[in-house]
Every structure is written in structure tokens, then in C-alpha cells.
Amino acid sequence: MQHAVSTGLIFDWDPMWFSGVLFVLTYLVILSDRINRAIVALLSASLMIIGGLLTQQAAMRGVDFNTLGLLTGMMVIVAITRRTGVFQFLAVWSAKHVGADPWGILVMLVLVTAVLSAMLDNVTTVLLIVPVTLLISEALRMDPYPFLFAEIFASNIGGAATLIGDPPNIMIGSAVNLSFNDFLINLGPAVVIVLIVNLLLFYLIWGRNMHAKLEDRQRVLNYNEREAITDFPLLWRSLAVLGLVLIGFTMAHHLNLQPASIAMGGAALLLLLDNFSRKADDQSRSIHASFSEVEWVTIFFFLGLFIVVHGVESTGLLAMLADYVLAWTQGDSSITAMAILWGSAVASALIDNIPFVAATIPLIKSMAPTFGGPEGLMPLWWSLALGSCLGGNGSLIGASANLIVAGFAERSGHPISFLRFMLGAFPLMILSILISSVYIFVRYL
Amino acid sequence: MTARLVMDPYPSVLHKDETIAKGVELLMEHRYRNIPVVDDRGCYQGIFGVNCLLRLVLPKAVLLERGLTTVPFVSDSLRDLRIRLKEVEDKPVTFCITHNVPVVAPDTPLVETLLTLYRTHTSLPVVDPDSGCLLGVISYWDVGAKILEQEI
User: Fold this and answer.
1) So what's the pLDDT on residue A6?
2) Which residue of A221, A222, A225 to mutate against B (max B Cβ within 10 Å)?
């Protein structure tokens, strides 16, 4: 599928070679972690245009503004909501609800993390929950490792359940026009099963031996969760807007709205509710503060990446790769789905899953004729979503959320070693993918 | 007119091997905000001060960068804080010294020195740039006294 987007490559280079080499170099530099990934993606995108592979207009057509809008809108909503202290409230309330029993706390924090990851996104969730977790484990005089390990798993598993839970799902949903409900109905059951199985394993690994002294548990029980709420009026406004946005996501198809419109609309409404009573000067400061909470590095990384992948796609290279994959799987949907599930899981455990998914989406799209049109691709999309989200649990660098937890752990004096994490996490990730394989096979193949 | 003119050349110091208990005792006894820490050769190692003390008694998790911005729900008692301090009292002061306080060289111009003092909000160590040795400390009180003794 060759698109006529090129204005003529410099030095008469072969477009497929040029885009392929640039694409591989981009991934290698991102993988090396030597240069910020947003810089790499933007530079590579610029080279696609300056090199003559894409015109600026063609490059912009490759950018998925639905993904960017959804991410930005949700980041603004969460940035305002977090100021209310509601997330600390939830974590402390959960810990007290189980009498500050360590295993009970782990279960509750896993559930809170998984649900919040599904409703917000997993990176934001761990940013909000992990500091409270460290506080609680310190009060209990316990090693925070089991809690942090379990939260990493919960964030990636919970994030797999919905359209907005994990960046790969946002990208897949946007590219294929899948709704919030599509993800929840198709991936929700698998996520629940995987979460329960992992909780059972956490119990066998740590839960049986998690004990804290009565005096230390009392310290946690003395926490007053209501004091965590610092702004009740803003809390009600934030929850109302968040509720509206979630309803909007579930009814998006009926309303004929894209997720980005709903998220950006919610963000604008919450900004209004947060600022309408302020003076003009205060409004500027407040809005500036809210916008500064948006992770612009991630947004610009996506922007550059979309252009790079679009450039590669325009040369027909990804379609050619898809043909190779189909030749290898002999066009069998079961084998192809399993290859995508396991391939994306292992790849996501070892490299950043965002660029991997960005490149795989057009590859899967070009398989449509083999599987009888877009409907025949659905098992492949669910395989990609489960593989890339759950695969992130395989190593400490498998997902952004993992790195954030590791950063907190290190700063609190409890560093998580890459090897220790991987030795425990990789087998559990493989088990999750085994469960997902059975799920995909039974339900779709 | 340089930093040397307004520094106290005989400040109280802590040796890097002295314990946190000793450092806290000095802080409390003299109501110091900061005490420079030096090694065997008198080379400057960092600052042990009241902020170090607070850092030791607060839960570690509340001090995390990008972590909790407020913790009104935590209800630790004075006894809890004392227990935290007790746990680290026997560790050397280097366990929690800070390197965030800027230092000045003895030949730093006077106004530049005072501007640094104004911006830092705490006493400044004066350090020999070649040997790294602590030569003295400049406090608000030393500077104030030197200014007031000038006849005009």
C-alpha cells in the first residue's frame, strides 16, 4: 500500500531503505536511553520531512490527534483532581479498612491501583498511589518491595482493561475506532482473571509471611483519611466531571463523539469550574499550573513517533513485513493471533511498548484482506492490546509505570534491582500471557 | 574587600566521623542553624543543620521528590519522631549532610558574598578553592557586627 506522499528523496535514495534505516536507528537510540525519547522521535520525524520522504501536510496526516487529545485531556483532569487529595484518601481508607493488616493492605492497594489504572491511566495512578504506599510500609516497618511489585502488576493489568488505561490501548482504539465499551467487554474478563491469579500467587510468595507489630499497625490506623481531602468543593466538581467523562466514554458511539473530544471537553469544563471564581491574574497562574502538569515529553514523543511510523508505512515497508508474518503463520488466524500476543508481550517486556505498538498497528491493518476484512482482525487487536499491556510486567523497563515505581523506590532508600524484579516478574508475566492465550483462543478463535 | 574580611575563622565544626547525636547536641546547645562538617585534614565535606534534623524525624516517604505534596492525614506523635531520630543517632553525620549550601572562596568580593548570603538564607562556609579546606564561616551576625562597627 504505497501512498504518494513523497516530494522526492534527497540524493535519490531508495525510500524504503531510507525509512527503514531511519526507523531502526530511531528505535535503537530510544532503546539506548542516551537521549530523551521525545528528542529522538521529533528529530527522526524532522528527517522524514527534510529528507523528502514526507511533505509537512502528509506528516500531519500521520499524527493521530485523537490519541494526543485523549492523553492531554485526561492529564489535565487528573492534574486538577489530584490537588483535592482524593487519591491519598482512597489509599489510606483502604489500608484502614482492613485493619492495617499488611496482606489486606496489599490486596486493597492492588485493587485500588487496578481500578484507577483502568479509569485514569496507569502512569498517573502509580504516581499517586506509590508515595502513600511507601508511607504506609514505613509506618508498618516493612520492606515495601512486595507492595511495589504488586502495584506495578496491578497498574499494567488494570490498564489493559479499558481504552484509556494504557497508551497502547489508546493507540489501538484510536487507530481502529474501538470504543471504551469494546475494550471493557472484550478485555475486562481476561483482566479480572489475570488479576485474581496474580493475587493468589502474591499470597503464596509474600502474603503468608506478611506480619506487622500491633503498635506499627496502630500508627496506620491513627491516620485520618478525611484530613487527606484538602479541597471539598473542588473534589465534588472533579468527581462530577470525571463521572461525566466516563459516561461520555461509555456512550461515545451513541453520541458520535471521539474519545479525545470527550476528554478535552471534560478538561475544559473542569478548568472552568476550577477557575471561574478567580480573578484574571489568578486564573492565568492556575491554568498555567494545570497545563504544566501535562507530560509534554510523552505528548511530543507520540507526535514524532506517529510521523516516523507514517513515513515508514508510506513506503510499503510495513505491508511487506506483514506479508512475511503472514507467510510465516500461513495466514492462519490462530497462529497469527498467538504470534502477535506472545511477540508483543516479549517485546514489551524488553523495549518501550509505545513505539512497538505504533509500528505494529499499520502492520496488522495491512493483514485485513487475508482475514476477510477489518472484522477478521479483531482477535489480532485484542492480542496486541493484551500482549503489549501485560508484557510490560516482564521487566522493570517494560512500562513507564514500572520505571516511575522504581524511581520512587530508589529515592526512598529501597532500590529495586533490575534482575531481582525480572526473576520474579517475567515468569508471572508469562503466566498472564498463557491465561490470555487461552482466553483469546476460547473466545475468538 | 573580600569574604575573608567578614568571616569567622574559628567556627564550630563537626568531624565527619562524629555521630548524629553529637551533631544534634551541638545544634540544640548553641541554637545553630548549620554546622560545617570537615575531614581529618580540615577539608570541607558539607553541612549538618536543622533541616537535616527535620529530615531525620519525618517519614522518608513524605520527602520524596514528585511524591506527596501535603500529608494532613498523618498523625505521628512526638514520640514517633523521637523513635525515628533514635534509630539513626549512632550513624555518622555524613549520613545526612547536605551539599546544597553554596560555598564562597576567601577572595570572593564582599558584595558578591553578601548577595550569596542573602539568597541562601543561611551561614556560608568559606572554602579554599585549591585545597578544599574550610577557612571559616560567614553568618548574618558577623556581617552585621562588621557593618555596624564602621564609623561614618
Assistant:
1) 54
2) A222
Domain count, chain B: 1
Q: What ipTM did this prediction achieve?
A: 0.79
Nearest to B64 among A89, A134, A139 (CB): A134
**CATH number for position B10:** 3.10.580.10
The per-residue pLDDT for range A47-87, each reduced to its tens digit, is 999 998 999 999 999 898 988 998 899 999 988 998 899 99
How far A141 CA sits from the closest chain B CA (Å)?
11
For residue A2, the distance in angstroms to the closest alpha carbon of chain B comes to 46
Residue type at A101 in one-letter notation: D
Q: What is the pLDDT of residues B38-49, one digit of tens each?
A: 999 999 999 999
**B-chain residue closest to A91, CA distance:** B73
What percent of chain B is predicted at pLDDT more than 70? 100
With contacts defined as CB-CB under 8 Å, which chain A residues touch B72? 85, 224, 227-228, 230
Determine the distance in angstroms separating the CA of B63 from the nearest CA of chain A, rounded to an integer.
8
Residue B11 belongs to what domain range? 3-148
